[in-house]
Amino acid sequence: MKAIQIEHVQELLEKFENQQIYLHLETTSGAYAAQNKEKLSVGAYIRNGSVRFTNVKIAGAGPYRIGFKLDEGWMYAEGLTDYQLDNKGRLLMAGHDDSGRLAIAVQLSHTPFE
To answer: How far apart, in whole angstroms, are the C-alpha atoms of residue 50 and residue 27?
Structure first.
């Protein structure tokens, strides 16, 4: 993965607009991310959610946030640091903390994830 280049990632995100796509979204501050046992462990996970967004915007100075305008609402992801467009045309984005641990993953694909 490479560090997010905001203009390039914005262009990649826009290639998924107005299409039915598959989403993987995962957040965690759980067991493999949190080191302090007094922290509240939280997380969210969806894989192969079928979504359609009509507008998308990446913003921030790093870590970055992305807002997706859905047909009937909004989806938001924050804390993204890295991205990759893989050889299957999937846009993979992740947020890692200062120790390199995964805190958030957002992935977009035209085909279901395996």
So the answer is: 18
